[in-house]
Amino acid sequence: MNAPGRAGPPILPAPVIRVRGLEEARLAAAAAAGLGKAFCLASQEAASAYAGAGWFARMAATVAAEYPGTVALAILDCGDRAGDVMAGLAEPVTAMRYDGPPAVASKLRAMAGEAGIRMVAELGPCLDLSRQADPVAACRAWLDEAPRVPGSATPAPDTGVMTDEPYMGDFPGCQLYLVTPPAIDLEPFADALQRALDGGAVAALQLRLKGSDDDSVRRAAARLLPLCRGHDVVFLLNDRPDLAVEMGADGVHLGQDDTPAREARRMMGADAVIGVTCHNSRDLAFQAAEDGADYVAFGAFFPTRTKEAKTRAEPWLIAWWHEVATVPQVAIGGITAANCAPLVAAGVDFLAVSGGVWNHSEGPTRAVQAFHTVIARTPVDPSVAREGAS
Fold first, then answer.
1. Most CB atoms closer than 10 Å: which of 147, 181, 253, 315?
2. Residue 383 main-chain phi, psi, to 5 deg
3. Average pLDDT of the segment spanning 274-287
4. For the whole prediction, is pTM greater than 0.70?
5. HSE-up of residue 157 (Cα within 13 Å, Cβ side)
6. 240: part of which helix (H) or strand (E)?
7. In angstroms, what CA-CA distances link 379 with 322, 339, 359?
8. In this predicted model, what pLDDT tens digit does every residue of 8-26 receive, in sequence order?
């Protein structure tokens, strides 16, 4: 599911170029600037050991200032050295890679999250400039033609703005993600869905029929999937990757007690959209991202009658994830056009809405229109929401 930026493993926004020093970093940035593109700047794995986190942070800042818009992310590669991660926490490093023991990695992720630093488990394909006979030509070829992880972002050639291959729809800014009621009368609901889609762009529909038998889910999917395809809406099933594969759904949404994300990915393939409920937990979100989730879902943000909420989340969590991660985020729980503005301002990618559309007093068409009006009128300013962070 692509938000402003779907990213599958390794969850990076642009091609990765490893450098040994400032000269190579400048060369890579100059090549990117000449192409109107961006890249992820990464240290050699051993570089942190002999030069230190401070060296890398200063180098990244220098290059970013000299070639604005070219460095999508600067990543200090710490390998399996926890001490290097601790050094990075003390510097203005924006991201680090650590592949040590999982128990240690979990604690370091939490510490990095508190410091506003991204942690990635792997870099995927990289161009190592120190090994290139013609570094300039290698950079240009890599930025133009390098194999990318499915769903990783590609810089737009004219503007340098990060865009994606269409996946969750290609709409700018915050998008609508509709969730069915837990029980539906199929034909009247199909009509309601059509009216909702008539109201404006919708990125996704999650079929969430709790307590229904498999045949009921199959019938509902068979009826609603063509409506979604006709409007470029991603169709997701709740909980059941097996049924999602059988019915040809675009993906699945998983709870913490459902099929693990990695197993769902094995069952559904690389192109499937897989989302994971993370409640109000940053640790669960980081884990979902490392497991290859295409989006993480936080909530509940408001009281809801659709399901009993296990946790409450606040807008500062949206603002925090907006700044430290590139995996799209979904806000869920009691969201209506009347209360969604703080989530939009915090930088949420998708608003998951159920009763706020299906139970709207003026009908689904007007509900979707009302959401789009709020989204269009609300500027993104995560700093406001961050004031509530603990």
1. 253
2. -60, -30
3. 94
4. no
5. 4
6. none
7. 14, 15, 27
8. 334 467 889 999 888 889 9
